[in-house]
Backbone:
């Protein structure tokens, strides 16, 4: 009988250690080591799945044949745009997101929007019956959708080669496994190995593959940082569960722009595309209330108007409160310091609450100016005209710094009826130099 050896593996990055460690030297995460029993004989890591063996010799680049097959579309416009114009045959795509955010719904809906596609949907998390129920609710009537209730990778790959679908969907990578490996499905070893096999399937057989992956609480795709290196495209599906909007963001894309964003809304009958997302994030009920400012941020190549809300109240006791929702707290502290030093507004005796409406996270530096104006508007209790939008980064000297795509942002604001945009001086002749000037313009 083979001797059993015990080792410890980091569940986040796969680092192996002969003894248990509190902090992983590979990724510096805490408490991630789990015990594993392995046979003394090391497992051979070869693709031993029939049909995927390689016997290719090196060849001259000029002689490499390119199949001039063109991209095909999911016909979900927002999805296709994020992919960079649809799927490239043989592309390997990872869709990550928290449980319940809508990954299964999105991938199933491709069968509805493009019923001509032959899709092999491998489900590891739900039974075929449950998928049928969901498909009925989503109104999917495609006869080209095959549902395969299988989690054994070798079988999936065999079936995929037999059926040769336009699109293989694996939902999710954490549920599939190889029988040769001793670790549990979802362990880093299984995920790595299975993902590598799907990669070979995509590249050698040209089968476009989508794998769905769960993300951890911290927002990383569970374990597999390694997964991100293997795939061509990493898409992150995100959103706040308390709100209905969802963002599909490309974090990496070998075949298109990265940081592109598609916007969806989760409804009773599935995800619907939002072609004018700015309307989703601004309300018209706040006219005349102090502390509200509209900023124009960029999400990928797309301008998006969102509403910043500030509430500044006299601090009753102790250290004044600084609370922010959807905005970096230390950035808020910095902007408060700039306002105090460079514009003469003191917040030291006030509690400050900042909120980005709609559950949105504002991380674009171009939002700084809007945040400053919202803060001062609440402090002085003077409302900002709802017909003004703000664009600009605020520097430590109180100066307005220019940001990319100003023209595009201004156009988006104008489209939604914002007559005036306050922008940094730079190329723009009518721009504003300092944050205190901008505040004067906005509040009179
Ligand atoms: P799901 O696609 O199962 O999420 P994931 O695969 O990322 O775990 O989405 C589940 C959530 O979406 C669930 O909370 C219910 C909601 N939902 C709707 O609101 N409308 C729908 O038509 C569907 C199918 C799901
Ligand atoms: Mg799911």
Residues:
């Amino acid at each position: 009988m083979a001797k059993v050896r015990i080792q410890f593996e980091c569940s986040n990055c796969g680092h192996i250690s002969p003894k248990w460690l509190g902090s992983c030297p590979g990724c510096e995460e805490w408490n991630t080591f789990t015990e594993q029993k392995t046979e003394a004989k090391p497992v051979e890591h070869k693709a031993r799945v029939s049909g995927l063996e390689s016997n290719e010799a090196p060849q001259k680049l000029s002689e490499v044949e390119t199949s001039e097959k063109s991209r095909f579309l999911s016909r979900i416009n927002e999805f296709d745009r994020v992919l960079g114009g649809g799927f490239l045959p043989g592309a390997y795509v990872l869709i990550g997101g928290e449980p319940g955010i809508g990954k299964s719904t999105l991938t199933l809906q491709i069968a509805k929007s493009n019923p001509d596609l032959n899709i092999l949907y491998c489900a590891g998390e739900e039974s075929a019956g449950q998928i049928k129920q969901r498909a009925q609710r989503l109104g999917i009537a495609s006869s080209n959708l095959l549902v395969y209730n299988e989690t054994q990778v070798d079988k999936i790959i065999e079936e995929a080669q037999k059926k040769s679908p336009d699109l293989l969907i694996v939902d999710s990578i954490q549920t599939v496994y190889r029988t040769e490996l001793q670790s549990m499905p979802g362990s880093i070893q299984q995920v790595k190995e299975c993902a590598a096999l799907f990669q070979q399937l995509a590249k050698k057989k040209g089968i476009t593959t989508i794998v769905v992956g769960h993300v951890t609480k911290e927002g990383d795709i569970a374990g597999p940082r390694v997964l991100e290196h293997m795939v061509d495209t990493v898409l992150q599906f995100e959103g706040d569960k308390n709100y209905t909007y969802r963002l599909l963001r490309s974090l990496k894309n070998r075949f298109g722009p990265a940081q592109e964003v598609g916007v969806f809304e989760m409804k009773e009958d599935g995800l619907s595309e939002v072609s004018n997302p700015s309307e989703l994030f601004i309300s018209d009920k706040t006219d005349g209330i102090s502390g509200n400012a509209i900023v124009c941020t960029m999400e990928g190549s797309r301008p998006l108007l969102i509403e910043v809300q500030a509430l500044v109240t006299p601090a009753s006791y102790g250290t004044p409160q600084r609370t922010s929702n959807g905005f970096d707290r230390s950035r808020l502290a910095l902007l408060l310091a700039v306002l105090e030093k460079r514009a003469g507004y003191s917040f030291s005796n006030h509690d400050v609450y900042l909120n980005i409406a709609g559950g949105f996270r504002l991380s674009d530096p171009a939002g700084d100016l809007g945040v400053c104006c919202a803060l001062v508007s609440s402090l002085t209790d003077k409302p900002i005209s709802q017909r003004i939008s703000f664009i600009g980064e605020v520097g430590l000297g109180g100066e307005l710094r220019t940001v990319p795509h100003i023209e595009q942002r201004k156009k988006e604001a104008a489209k939604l009826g914002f007559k005036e945009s306050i922008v940094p001086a730079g190329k723009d002749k009518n721009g504003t130099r300092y944050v205190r000037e901008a505040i004067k313009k906005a509040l009179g």
Remarks:
- The pocket of magnesium ion (ligand 2) is lined by residues 103-104, 125, 171 (CB under 6 Å).
- The chain is about 25% helix and 25% strand.
